[in-house]
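Re: [ENG-882] Designed sequences occasionally contain unexpected residues at chain ends

Forwarding the minimal case from QA. C-alpha cells:
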C-alpha cells in the first residue's frame, strides 16, 4: 500500500508485529500521542490498550510499563512503528484486525476498549488537522488573516 508521500507499507510485516509483539506502540504522523497495546495477561490482569505520550527511549517505555504494569515481568518483545497514513485510514482498512482477533481470544472487553481508544485517536488527529489549518502551536500558519 502506498501513502500520499509514496512510502510503501508492508501489511504482512505489520500483521506479523500485531500477531507477535508482547508490547506494541504505534506512532502517528500529525500528533505526538501513541497507541500502546500490552497483550500480556495474568489471571487477574487482562491486556492493556492505552493512549500514551511519546518517550525518548525504549528504556523510558520499560520504566513506564514497570510503573503501570508492575505485576508483569519485562516483556519478551517490544515493537514500535510509525503509521504513515491517517488514523481514519487505519480504521477504514481494518489494519488492526489481526490484533483485535488476538486480544479478543483473551479478553471479552478488548473490542470495546480498542474501539473507544481508536475513536479517541481519531479525535486527536482531527484536532491536529484543525490546529495545523489555524496555525496553532506547534504548527505555523502560512498565511495570516488580514
Amino acid at each position: 500500500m502506498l501513502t500520499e508521500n509514496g512510502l510503501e507499507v508492508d501489511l504482512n510485516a505489520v500483521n506479523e508485529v500485531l500477531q507477535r509483539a508482547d508490547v506494541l506502540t504505534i506512532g502517528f504522523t500529525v500528533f505526538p500521542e501513541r497507541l500502546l497495546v500490552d497483550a500480556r495477561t495474568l489471571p487477574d490482569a487482562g491486556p492493556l490498550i492505552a493512549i500514551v505520550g511519546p518517550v525518548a527511549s525504549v528504556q523510558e517505555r520499560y520504566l513506564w510499563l514497570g510503573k503501570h504494569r508492575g505485576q508483569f515481568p519485562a516483556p519478551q518483545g517490544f515493537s514500535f512503528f510509525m503509521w504513515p497514513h491517517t488514523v481514519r485510514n487505519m480504521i477504514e482498512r481494518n489494519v488492526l484486525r489481526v490484533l483485535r482477533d488476538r486480544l479478543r481470544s483473551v479478553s471479552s472487553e478488548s473490542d470495546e476498549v480498542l474501539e473507544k481508544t481508536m475513536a479517541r485517536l481519531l479525535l486527536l488527529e482531527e484536532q491536529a488537522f484543525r490546529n495545523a489549518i489555524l496555525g496553532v502551536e506547534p504548527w505555523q500558519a502560512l498565511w495570516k488573516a488580514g
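QA comment: On inspection the terminal residues look reasonable. The chain has one domain: 11-132. Proposing we downgrade this to a documentation issue.
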